[in-house]
Write a structure and sequence with these properties.
The chain is α/β, with parallel strands linked by helices. 50% of the residues lie in helices and 11% in strands. The protein contains 32 helices and 18 strands. The protein starts with a strand and ends with a helix.
């Protein structure tokens, strides 16, 4: 058995079928790539074969390269891993180039055999690059099918010829968004973007028909034809020069220079456009190798692909607990959070009961789903029938008796322990004995909330991030008495709604918020020291954060920050550390500048609610320092404020698996994705240097930067987090 099968049909068309053995989706291994070449050679050598169609034996075409192959090649290459990766990449180029030239005469460009690709579902990564090397691409007309080049999302770029082929096909400016944003397109959009040539109900039949009717001229790619000129112009052409200036500005505008793969991709396109096609492939291979050798690439692949996938597949799910899929869910509280939970639950096919204090409030929560579907209908993403079907799954009511038969309850009521306790007891009197009860609190300790429950082993935290339908992460919190079935239930529910879960032990602010709050507070502290808020936010954005701490505070509301500070101070008493950040937040609250929701905060806002620059009145209270700090110093303060909390969370047992620490940070608040997460960043930095920087920052700025004992110990031993806390050890612990 093999991942590819070869057959010649009655019409003389060689059908190469991709069907990866033992896998739900086709991923390309090194051995399988070699088999592609073998079958292409066989078809080209067989006089009875008129052409080739590459298709899939699965419902999808391809899911990309098996990324473990790259790690294996690095290991096998000994002291020169770069050479090993480059040679492997060039081998792939050679195979796809052979497919593309298809036996044609080098001079006349005649005599080749047509090669078509029949794409019967989703196609990504190397699958799309194989398709681009074919002479004709036909895709199923299924609107759920997707095709694209999403490599940039995990820290690399299309290195199998996709970057060079696609940019030469459509030009640098048109190619840049597709390659840099990594978006997957439906068949209609893909055809418009020239990723495919045709859409058909039967892509295999359409591909065969094209092969049997293709002429010599149909086989010659634009870059192999005499007189080829790059769309938009080559870099040395006046129009092309402006194109690349614009593309460069777009890349740096979107990435702020923080993502190595984006810069490498643009360099590959630019340098490749100056030379012939085959030399351009070699340039692409060199830049691809350069990115693979960058520790950022390894960290991103590990966190955003391997670890994320492992968590979604149940890497931390308690062993021996049977399937806990949710059939009927009760959502308590129909505010924005509860309404969002109801929406994603209904989308996953669950029966939803949405509870609020009265019918009007409950109906308002259900209307959130209706508005969401209306927006989808407007964009052509949904239909009226789908909207009606989804709304039929949601029962909006103030009647708690409607919760009978629920197997999961998620409470999303007001953040008050007394209100939550009362609701817990009322609901437990109605729901089945084996129903799991979850609180969506973002700050209140789960162990304390569970005291109101008569079944604390069935009580758990399920912390969503807002807006629920857009955010990818769900944080599951185990109280001291939370049992394995409750954890399994929460994990299975998160799998059903297609989000990524992390499981943490109960502690103040859990994991995500305990890291986000210091990030925000450090930004606030710097303002009180006279550091420009423009410098603070831009320093964060140049680290790869989606927004800086000042803007983030405005987005989440300033009075929320004040409320959290007061509640934490009340809970901690004398142990609460006094901070000038609190003084700033309380002052802003007193000024009535509560952030975006009030159209006044650290920013000015216009009539339409758009930011119109930083509020100049801030400097009247906190004048700008005559000498502003160095950019790197600002960035280090913002980074270490977060990563040290991540280390402490691991040290205290709040984090039980380092994979969750890294994946959770990136998905929850956008922690510098290029770094792979806070613990990966410390590994890139090196624990000895990290400890040294802690000491310098502590001396200059205070004890909040003091080196945790765990990090100090690891620095002294020269250890890294992904060796000491390797997932295998984590899983076994």
């Amino acid at each position: 058995m093999s991942d590819f099968k070869y057959d010649v049909d009655a019409d003389g068309v060689a059908i190469i079928t991709w069907d990866a053995e033992g896998k739900s989706m086709n991923v390309l291994t090194r051995e399988a790539f070699g088999l592609v070449e073998e079958y292409v050679d066989r078809a080209l050598a067989d006089e009875a074969v008129k052409g080739i169609v590459i298709t899939s034996g699965k419902k999808d075409f391809a899911g990309g390269m098996d990324l473990n192959v790259l790690a294996t090649i690095r290991e096998e290459s000994g002291e020169n891993p770069a050479q090993g990766l480059f040679d492997f990449t060039m081998s792939g180029h050679r195979i796809l180039r052979k497919l593309e030239l298809a036996g044609m005469d080098p001079k006349t460009k005649k005599g080749g055999k047509p090669v078509a690709c029949a794409i019967n579902g989703t196609c990504a990564g190397i699958g799309t690059e194989i398709a681009l090397a074919c002479h004709h691409r036909v895709m199923t007309d299924n609107p759920k099918a997707r095709i694209g080049l999403p490599e940039i999302m995990i820290g690399i770029f299309p290195g199998g010829g996709g970057t060079t082929r696609y940019s030469r096909m459509v030009g640098a400016m048109a190619a840049a968004p597709v390659l840099l944003e990594g978006k997957m397109m439906d068949p209609k959009k893909a055809k418009g973007a020239q990723l495919i040539d045709a859409v058909s109900e039967d892509p295999l039949a359409a591909a065969k028909e094209w092969v049997l009717n293709a002429k010599d001229a149909d086989l010659v790619k634009p870059w192999d034809a005499k007189g080829y000129k790059m769309p938009g112009g080559a870099p040395y052409h006046p129009a092309g020069f402006m194109t690349f200036v614009g593309a460069s500005a777009m890349v740096h505008g979107k990435t702020q220079g923080a993502f190595p793969a984006a810069k490498a991709l643009l360099s590959s396109i630019y340098e490749g456009a100056l030379v012939d096609f085959d030399t351009a492939l070699k340039i692409e291979a060199r830049w691809f190798t350069n990115v693979l050798m960058n520790p950022s690439s390894s960290a991103m692949i590990r966190s955003l692909f391997l670890n994320k996938q492992a968590l979604e597949k149940g890497a931390v799910r308690p062993a021996g607990v049977p399937d806990q899929s949710v059939k009927k869910i009760g959502v308590l509280g129909a505010g924005m959070m509860g309404a969002g939970i109801a929406l994603v639950s209904a989308q996953a096919g669950m029966e939803v009961v949405l509870i609020d204090r009265d019918q009007d409030a409950a109906d308002k929560g259900k209307a959130y789903s209706a508005a969401y579907m209306d927006a989808g209908i407007k964009r052509g993403k949904a239909t009226q029938e789908k909207k009606e079907a989804l709304l039929a799954q949601i029962t909006a009511t103030p009647d708690l008796d409607a919760l009978k038969g629920c197997d999961l309850i998620i409470e999303a009521v007001f953040e008050d322990p007394g209100v939550k306790a009362e609701m817990t007891q009322k609901v437990e009197a109605v729901i089945p004995e084996d129903c799991i009860f979850a609180s969506n609190t973002s700050t209140l300790p789960i162990t304390e909330l569970a005291k109101a429950s008569s079944r604390p082993e069935q009580f758990i935290g399920i912390h969503f991030f807002s807006p629920v339908e857009k955010m990818f992460l769900v944080e599951i919190i185990k109280g001291k008495e939370t049992g394995d079935r409750a954890v399994a239930k929460a994990l299975d529910y998160v799998r059903q709604i297609r989000k990524t879960p992390i499981v943490v032990n109960d502690a103040r602010f859990f994991y995500a918020n305990r890291c986000i709050i210091p990030y925000i507070n450090e930004g606030m502290r710097m303002i009180t020291e006279g550091v420009s808020p423009v410098l603070i936010d831009n320093a964060a954005r140049q680290l790869g954060f989606p927004v800086g701490p000042v803007q983030l505070t405005d987005e989440t509301s300033i009075d929320l920050g004040a409320k959290i500070a007061r509640a934490t101070k009340a809970a901690m008493g004398d142990a609460y550390p006094k901070s000038p950040a609190d003084d700033l937040i309380f002052w802003m609250e007193d000024q009535g500048r509560l952030g975006r929701k009030a159209n006044a905060g650290f920013f000015e806002y216009d009539d339409k609610g758009k930011r119109a620059g930083y509020w100049k009145g801030l400097q009247e209270k906190y004048p700008l320092a005559a000498e502003q700090p160095d950019l790197i110093e600002v960035q280090e303060r913002l980074m270490f404020a977060q990563v040290l909390e991540a280390v402490r969370a691991l040290e205290e047992g709040v984090l039980m698996d380092i994979r969750e620490g890294d994946v959770g940070a990136i998905l929850a608040w956008g922690f510098a994705p290029w770094s792979g997460g806070p613990l990966s960043w410390l590994d890139i930095l090196g624990t000895p240097y990290a400890a040294e920087r802690c000491d310098s920052l502590t001396e200059k700025f205070g004890e909040r930067f003091s080196c945790p004992a765990l990090l100090r110990e690891m620095a002294e031993k020269g250890q890294s987090f992904y060796t000491r806390f390797a997932p295998e050890k984590s899983a076994a612990a």
